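hiii, so i know i said id send this last week but things got crazy w the move. better late than never?? heres the sequnce for the chain we talked about at the cafe, plus the structure i predicted for it. fair warning i was half asleep when i ran it
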Amino acid sequence: MANNFLTFQIAGDVVLVRKLDYTISNLANLKPFYEQTLDLIKTNLDRNFEREGAEASKWQSLSAKTLKARSLRQGYYARSPNKPRILRWTGNMQDNRLEEATRDYAKVEFQTSYAKFHNFGTKNIPARPFVKLDNKTNSLIIRNLENFILKDLRGRK
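okay and structure toks below
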């Protein structure tokens, strides 16, 4: 069976070897990086709700039936709106999310049972992906990881 590991040895430059060892040990705790990443993701998610879609794909408009119910304040829409938009009436879905950053990961979980239906769509509900990172956010996450690693190589301050 083939070995899938790349092994190399750095010899001669003691300072470089120490910095690499230090960096590798610090990569075992990525919590500072994940905290920054979580902030970027939260900003991106809120921007998707505000703009009603990601930078390249706007959400489908509400159906005529939903628009009528909203205007007449019927059923679910009898409640007072909170910054009404396509996927925001009371704010429950956008505002009720679990956010966590640890040394191993960052995550955002929407706590409403219907969030997945709106994000991915169903037979009767068009997909309106709000859990979608734009190119700017992706670039910032990559830059933050690069900076995190470079700080270790330079000596964290």
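btw The helical segments are 14-26, 31-51, 64-72, 92-95, 115-120, 135-154. thought thatd interest u
miss u guys!!
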